[in-house]
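[job 0412] stage=complex_fold ligand=FE2/S2 (inorganic) cluster status=START
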Amino acid sequence: MESNDSLFLPEQARIIGERELTSNTKLFDLNFENGKELNHEPGQFVELSIAGIGEAPISVTSSPTRGTPSFELCVRAVGNVTNALHRMNVGETVGIRGPFGTGFPAEELKGHDLLFIAGGLGIAPLRSLINYVLDNRDDYNEINILYGCKKPCEQMFEDEVSNWARRQDIYHEATVDYCPDEVCWEGNVGVITELIPGVDIDLDETYAVVCGPPVMYKFVLQELEKKELPHDQIYLSLERRMKCGIGECGHCQINGAEEELYACQDGPVFNYERIKGFEEAI
Amino acid sequence: MKPESVKPKVAFFDFAGCEGDQLQVANMEEKILDLIEVVDVVNFREIMTERSEDYDIAFVEGSIATDHDAERLQGIRENASWVVALGSCAAIGGINSIRNSQPYDLVQDRVYGDDADKIEAWDVAKPIDAIVDVDGYVYGCPINQDEFVHVVESLLQGKDPNIPTYPVCVECKMNENVCVFARNPEKNAANIKAAVDNGSPAESGPFCLGPVTRAGCDSQCVNEGTTCWGCRGLVPNPNENAHQEVLEKYGLSVDEVINKFNLYFGWQQEELKNEQ
Amino acid sequence: MKAIGKAEFSNFVDELIADDPREVIGVQAKSNKFAFDPLKSAEDLRLDYDVTILPPKKYFMPQRETLVKYNTNEGEMTAVNEVIPRIIFGIHPYDLIAIQQMDKVFEETHSDENYLAKRRESVLVGVNMKNASEWSFAHTMGTATTDSGYDLMLTDIGDKYAVEIGSVKGSELLEEAKSQLDDVGMEEIEKVREFKEELPDKFRDDPEFDPFELPRLLSEYYGKDGFWEENAEDCLSCGTCNLVCPTCYCFDVKDVNDITLTEGERLRTWDGCMLEAFAQVAGDENFREEKAARYRHRYMRKGRYMYNKFGDIACVGCGRCSEQCVPDIADPVDVFNQMKEGTNGI
Ligand SMILES: Cc1cc2nc3c(=O)[nH]c(=O)nc-3n(C[C@H](O)[C@H](O)[C@H](O)COP(=O)(O)OP(=O)(O)OC[C@H]3O[C@@H](n4cnc5c(N)ncnc54)[C@H](O)[C@@H]3O)c2cc1C
Ligand code: SF4
Ligand code: SF4
Ligand code: SF4
Ligand code: SF4
Ligand code: FES
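[job 0412] stage=complex_fold status=DONE, emitting structure tokens
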């Protein structure tokens, strides 16, 4: 029988724009067919659904301050859903459930210095917060953005990145793990952790916001530890397997010594103080 | 439905196997009519005579045991965009790999008798991915029709099929079967006690390879009251030792356990050993 | 409390099977075990069973359930909820308590109608335990009896069943047997009391822990070196201990298409945290790669997570996992006793 109150029925959204960012990553601009707004917070995600293929959790990369009612997803083709999306064209529709999860604490960060650390695709959720902060520039103090990729051709959002580099009110450094000889690259070469010592950190004021592949966190946290940045001034966005996005399916659960958390509800953004004792978290 | 011109062409090939898997496909009745709506079958000995060398998807049945087989398989690989292993012989070496653990002369004698010297077969039967790259697997001896449909459907949609990595027990429990190891509690208890007291079981016990065998068949053999023989091959990371201990505890001799494991897992066990 | 003669009760069940539009389910023998299945005749109902292979959760959260149907040509998706109204006979108290825990999960998180509608449309007829499986430790977990969670509750008092009414749904069902009901006197009330008094003797006597110590013990043992590795060594990662558990509800979601590629269904299927790929993501990262990590995770879910969230211990002591784990390593009593005794596993 048909059901009107299913938690699993996606709403149709039309692809209104599509842009290649790297060889395997594309930016999609989406609009709900029924005209509603997504109403997300930076750091939240949606379940993107393609009938016949499945669903995948994807962060909303656009800031709620820009381009509404449409919203952007930055998607790397790694598997069934993401590859199928890459094969789709402007004008076609996908399903969206959400927004879900706990995003970045944009309010709490107000009045503080911010240190954004993005590795690879981790720029996708961070970009939402970065642009939110830039659109409310007066509410925030100093802004530092560190952005690392494997190689120059993997850097995304070049126009925005070069704008950060030009702006006087942003400290910005980019790095690549390596740069092939024939490629011209003005940024640093080396892993992202090497950029951290160069940042001015005010132990009372600076909040670090980190997002990247699972392997990156350990090393970034070690560097921040050296700087003695208090743990409750660090926010991380974690990736887990997710099937429902609404705290039911159990897949995203993370166990700790004292409690357990659901990445889809309690996260994906976590305060480091809260999860540092979780063997399974980092 | 796809227009006629872009329907992918499908061909079926057989090597050392019983063709039971092609039969499963041929027996699909209405489903095969649906299949024919989405693909063009150009080469299928079970149901047609005309042949073509022009195909996109090659379903290969049977394991590879001679140089000639290997060459022919390589030719198929060159022609096809997708090569799919159909059935356990092609996917995991299957029942043909039972002889991998036995002396080769003996096997030849037993199988071919007086003709033994005329056959130039390798001393092991290999799954097709030991020779060429493989894009998809339909496990089972014989294959499960629904899973075959799922694999075809997935290939046509450009997605990886969803093939379980968990063991048969999962499906067996969902079907609420009485576990093979619980069918005869009195006998089991006596066996386990004898094993503890005398170091060996009283009589040969029950066995089921479900806990180490890849699911996807809907536990059909246990549903029908028999047991899982392991025809779909080992799960990716089997806890073989633990399960062998279980079988011994329930009253299988060490040799019996080895024989059960060799029935379908011959090639895979070699592979696992080499990995370690 | 009311009472009904056993013959009258059988008639009542047979009439429901014949006339009630709802599906009538009851515990029946399945070779040498028991299972909840549709009843063909009251004769098949075995209210003296010890434990069923699967818990009755399969009626509210089926093994495979369609959530959404779609047509890929038209890009259309429709939500579906297959609700079959049912009367279910013979649920033991521990399973009734487990169902109440599941209700909280599906209500308090997001109000999951696919589960809740099936619950609303079911009438639960409980039965006090005449027999207990040799593995059951319901008494220890405080789930051998229950005052809530049933619509009707039966107790075998010899030639009659005592019937307690737990809800409006229950009394409505009983309406249909009205003429056959007896009022109860002191004698029947006394018999029910005796029945419950004798219950503890039916259960194994080896548990040494108190259920409400479990969250603390688990926190202590979470990081205990070697403890989980030792206990999980023979684990086959077969998921049986999840699938048979009345309080396990984790699921997978997948799309299944027909071969013409136009129509298909999005299914939710049972899943289990003991299965190797449960926490695996693209790029081969697996957040609980080792069987010991998965084994620990299950215990955390049973003994602590639900307690932190809802105040419930999510093991109701049914003993299904203990009995059905092939290498015999899933018995919670064994693990909880080890913690209580202070073993460190090495
Ligand atoms: C909160 C969150 C935000 C994310 N944001 C982005 C983003 O902005 N851009 C982006 O490209 N990717 C993002 N990812 C990763 C993305 O979800 C996975 O790459 C994606 O699920 C892979 O799905 P697939 O069907 O293409 O791959 P397959 O490998 O075919 O996946 C099969 C199924 O496994 C599960 N799965 C596999 N990998 C993951 C994973 N990494 N995380 C969760 N489930 C997984 C999914 O349920 C998926 O349906 C995010 C993940 C999470 C948890
Ligand atoms: S597959 Fe075999 S071992 Fe596993 S539950 Fe079924 S009968 Fe038991
Ligand atoms: S139950 Fe075992 S032997 Fe039977 S089809 Fe499945 S995998 Fe093969
Ligand atoms: S039932 Fe036993 S073997 Fe199977 S997953 Fe659970 S603990 Fe492991
Ligand atoms: S953990 Fe085991 S004993 Fe406890 S409720 Fe689940 S199946 Fe029953
Ligand atoms: S994604 Fe299902 S519980 Fe978090």
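Chain A touches chain C at residues 1-10, 12, 51-55, 78-79, 92-93, 95, 213-214, 239-241, 243-244, 246-251, 253-260, 279-280 (CB under 8 Å).
[job 0412] exit 0
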